Amino acid sequence: MKKLALAAAAATMMFAGAASAADMAVPVKAVAVVPPPPPVWDLAFGVTATSDYLFRGISQTNNNPAIQGFAELQLFDWVYFNVWASNQNWVENFQDGGNSSLEVDFAGGLRHTWGAFTLDVGGVYYTYPGGTDSVGLSSTDYNYWEIYAKPSYVVAPWLTLGANLYWTSDMYATGTDGTALSLTAKVPLPAFGPGGDFGWYLSGEYGYQWLSSSAYTYDVDYVVGPSIVTVQETINGYSWWNVGVGFTYKAATLDLRYSGTDLSSTNCAYIIGISNGCGDKFIASLSFATSFNALK
Fold first, then answer.
1. pLDDT tens per residue across span 234-265
2. 33 lies in some domain
3. Do residues 287 and 248 lie in contact, with contact meaning Cβ atoms separated by under 8 Å?
4. Residue 17, domain member (yes or no)
5. From 2's CA, which of 12, 19, 65, 264 has a CA 20 to 30 Å away?
6. Contacts of 85 (CB under 8 A, 6+ apart)
7. Calculated CA dihedral for residues 265, 268, 273, 277, nearest 10 degrees
8. 91 and 107 Cβ atoms separated by less than 8 Å
9. Number of folded domains in the chain?
10. Residue 215 is part of which domain span?
11. 8-34, pLDDT tens digit by residue?
């Protein structure tokens, strides 16, 4: 009996050992790491120095440099409100004795990312604080608004495509409709330098601005021999484009870009007040942008 008991005990231990070995051989399923929830709020801010302030291909500073800054409050990874400011000259081009040299824009909307897709919808109000000209026209009479939708999609790690659609019924404060649509592409390039801190990218944009002929029709006088011939010009819209390369290091970005439009010098003068503000040009910009949460 004692031998039988010992044999039974040995068999039990061998079975238990085999079971334990079998349990150890079963792979343990990895526990998925749950990403932390997005912050409830953040405040982004930045400043840019640029050789020219271009808006849809047209210089707003008479081909001169600009200093620009912004601050943006972001809430719940959805809602945002921001203010952006820059020096400008285009209002002065149309004001006799006016002294408005500042643009301040207020914008807000919804912006969210689902996987590779991001959508930004909202509205912006362009303001030009300053004085009153000699005939009593205030710079605030040039204020106007637009609503917009800006989708983008990361097609691959090396390519992001986007679109920007803007619309207003008061384009450039003329009381007429204006629609702008542009398509964008950005190609991130491999990082380099110690620790891969230096990044760079290629990017480009092609857009078209539709304008109402009721606001953008004007007369041009041509001297033909001893006579003056008046020809009516109409600007129904124009194309603009840009292509460039950017270099990034932490919060800094250096952007070098070539930009142009298909506007003639006379059409440019009618829109912005100078004849050489719409031609092809090279732009260099240096910007710094970060947020409170990024600094933690």
1. 999 999 999 999 999 999 999 999 999 999 99
2. no
3. no
4. no
5. 19
6. 68, 69, 70, 102, 103, 104, 105
7. -80
8. no
9. 1
10. 40-295
11. 444 444 434 444 444 445 455 555 666
